[in-house]
Specification:
Length: 340
């Protein structure tokens, strides 16, 4: 519909400066500047480096998103921004910029939850979200199972990691294997040449009756194994066996959550959702369980501005109250807060 509001979304919770523009749930632009190259030599995201990079990238990324969408500032009807959770200093840059654009353009501001935005983004590709749906969010910063009755109002946490996030485990194991950072894509690639059943690695908390995850025992088991094998270690077999342990637990618990709550739609998001084995095994197990699976394309799974714009668009459509101009960046925003 041509008269649907145009929402500009800003994401700066980690190392990506993301700006997305949507009209309703039609994606018009999705522009990203990443500071990952600046962090790679440290083997992890350095918060202060990320904040400074956001500052440099903010205005040019907004302008390039507008250019890509063929729009002017005056076409924007609302601004949405990730207000949390994430790195405090990094969030602050996006929130401050969003407030400035909101005041400057005279349009409402919506401060949103990063995790809820990871759920909302799927609508840009697969249409309206089924209500309720189950969401498995797996990235470098989070591993959560969320029951989503209504993404604009109610998101319920059913379980999360008690130690490392899934992506963090991929990154740490990659380091042990001498692969570059961030390690997820490299493990995914190496695993294609190896066997997932070559080494039996532990599946933390798999049958403990909760919907929580634990990956630190697995990470330690891999490190011990690699140390013991020394030069004769098969990187592809370790990568494939580690990956199998992670995706086995993730998919088992996700389907357990669907069953326990009578939910027939599972959505997977976050950077780890780009993992080819996770996508394949989730599809296999969803088919067997009669659950419909939705996974956005990889570019929408990793952090981006379009996801923030997508949730902002939901909030505008639902008539949600805009955020006040004094909203803080909340690095530990709980998932029960969809918007502030
Ligand atoms: O969502 P994201 O871009 O940023 C966070 O919010 O953390 O996720 C990044 C994480 C990294 O840990 C990265 O290693 C992981 O997602 N990742 C993958 C793959 N692609 C990215 N993990 C496994 N397999 C992949 N193909
Ligand atoms: Zn994320």
């Amino acid at each position: 519909m041509a008269d649907e509001p145009i929402v500009l979304g800003i994401e700066t919770s980690c190392d990506e400066t993301g700006v997305g523009i949507v009209r309703g749930h039609t994606l018009l632009a999705d522009t990203i500047a990443s500071s990952m190259d600046e962090h790679a030599r440290f083997g992890g995201v350095v918060p202060e480096v990320a904040s400074r990079a956001h500052l440099d990238a903010m205005a040019p990324t907004v302008e390039s998103a507008l250019a890509k969408a063929g729009l002017k500032f005056s076409d924007i009807d609302a601004i949405a921004v990730t207000a949390g959770p994430g790195l405090a200093g990094a969030l602050l840059v996006g929130v401050a910029a969003a407030k400035a654009y909101s005041v400057g353009l005279g349009v409402p501001l919506y401060g949103v939850n990063h995790l809820a935005a990871h759920v909302a983004v799927d609508q840009l590709e697969h249409g309206p979200l089924p209500e309720p749906c189950m969401a498995l969010l797996v990235s470098g910063g989070h591993s959560s199972l969320l029951l989503v009755p209504d993404v604009t109002r109610e998101v319920i946490s059913l379980g999360s990691t008690v130690d490392d996030a899934a992506g963090e485990a991929f990154d740490k194991v990659a380091r042990v294997l001498g692969l570059p950072f961030p390690g997820g894509p490299y493990i995914d690639r190496a695993a294609r040449e190896g066997r997932g059943d070559a080494i039996s690695f532990p599946r933390g908390k798999v049958d403990d009756g909760t919907l929580d995850f634990s990956f630190s025992g697995l990470k330690t088991a891999v490190a011990r194994y690699v140390e013991k094998q020394g030069d004769s270690v098969s990187v592809p077999d370790v990568a494939a066996s580690f990956q199998e342990a992670v995706v086995d637990v993730l998919t088992r618990k996700a389907l357990q959550a669907c069953r326990a709550n009578g939910v027939e739609d599972l959505l997977i998001g976050g950077g780890v959702a780009a993992n080819s084995r996770l996508r394949a095994l989730a599809q296999e197990r969803c088919d067997a369980a009669g659950v419909r699976l939705r996974v956005p394309r990889p570019g929408l799974c990793t952090d981006n501005g379009a996801m923030v714009a997508a949730l902002g668009s939901n909030l505008v459509a639902a008539g949600a109250a805009p955020s006040l101009l004094d909203i803080p960046a909340d690095s530990s925003m709980p998932i029960t807060t969809v918007s502030v």
